[in-house]
Amino acid sequence: MDDQLAVRLKAYEGRPAAVAGVGKDPVNAPMIRHWCEAMGDHNPVYRGPRAVAPPTMLQVWTMGGLSGHAGRAPAYEELLGLLDGAGYTAVVATDCEQEYMRPLRPGDEITFDTVIESVSARKTTRLGSGYFVTTRTDVRAGPERELAGTHRFRILKYAPAQPKPPAQQKPPAREDHRPRPVINRDNAGFWAGVERSRLLIQRCTACDTLRFPWLPGCTTCGSPEWDTVEASGEGTVFSYVVMHHPPFPAFDPPYAVGLIELAEGVRIVSNVVGVPYDKVRIGMPVRLEFRRYDEELTLPVFQGVAE
Rounded CA gap, 255 and 269, in Å? Predict the structure, then answer.
């Protein structure tokens, strides 16, 4: 049954989900202003006569609202219906990826095409077993329909897992259940540095602004070009919380989680270790160390330094 279903699902790869879609509104300054206010982004490149739209608004200009879009192809709804009929009735959005080719400016008319890019093999997750479905939307702008960006959106269509009776449950292995970081094309270099016991900070090569966490572009000047500098490892506790609840198998509450201000001026969230949780204080000096939690996971943490 599953093999037959997998063959039918794979047949949808490459089929269109939307053809010659048209944005309901051109790129416009009011929407940009609302977005920036909601995000707390005060970058001047998003204002004035030469303004550009924030790159992460890429999907905004393609959204159809309650009435939807003309040009929708039936393949995507057919695919979801096929999964529903096979018992994979639940859905959760898992992630999205965006690539930017050219900035969008107020007045740009938007067109787009969406294709079903891939359907995974059946996967087993903690939510239940199901299939990851990825669509790719190519967003174009202007009369020449110049490619402005690509938006990939991924969902999991799954059959909810049935909880086991308490007698059948096994206590989870603590380290095996420690959460893993989500690694993507924007932050892969950071985690590669962690594996080499290096804490790397992005630096804009246009204006030299340091930034953390890693981002695809500079929040000061908008440049997408960057290199890295290695953190010295010295810092102070800028703020912190003590976690008491909820309990989680991989952790032993209470423990301190700090917002650490590095000597370079950027801030990072991590555990404060080596001192009792009730002795952590704002302004406490800390020093970076790398802890290996298992054969796959290394994390940067900060050791409290006695004054």
Answer: 14
